Amino acid sequence: MIWQLTPKTHNRPLIVSAYVRKYKMNRILIDGGSAVNIMSIRAMKELEISSDELSQSHLMIQGFNQGDQRAIGLIRLELLIGELSSSALFHIIDAKISYNMLLGKLWIHENKVIPYTF
């Protein structure tokens, strides 16, 4: 008898954890279809980031809740994902999303990351 393993297909997103400042942040989505890095206001509060630390942003982000979402501000943060240490500029949004942070294609390319979900 020959055993053949067939992989089960899935459509789950690529989610990672990282250390940001002194905290472990879970539910970070790596999304090669996103043009920007995004952080929820909920995650901003968990990381104890005050609004005084944010730079101004006039960016209107499309694709959230079937409409547009204006960024509240910008912040650059250092991330430690496994052995990868990197910096990312995040646009803060006040929207109900299922992840804490989203790392988009610019971050993926800058860090030469190859998302692999098999």
- Mean pLDDT level: 87
Number of strands: 8
Question: DSSP helix count?
Answer: 2
What ranges have pLDDT less than 50 throughout 5 or more consecutive residues? none
Helix content: 10-25%
Sketch the topology as an H/E string, one letter per element. EEEHEEEEEH
Global shape: globular
Cα radius of gyration in angstroms? 16 Å
Amino-to-carboxy terminus distance: 27 Å
Spatial order of the strands forming the largest sheet: 1-2-8-3-7-6
Biggest sheet descriptor: 6 strands, mixed, barrel
β-strand amount = 35-45%
Structural class label: mainly beta
Report on this structure.
The structure is a single chain. The chain is mostly beta strands and 118 residues long. It is 10% helix and 42% strand. It contains 2 helices and 8 strands, in the order βββαβββββα. A 6-stranded mixed beta barrel has the order 1-2-8-3-7-6. The mean pLDDT is 87.
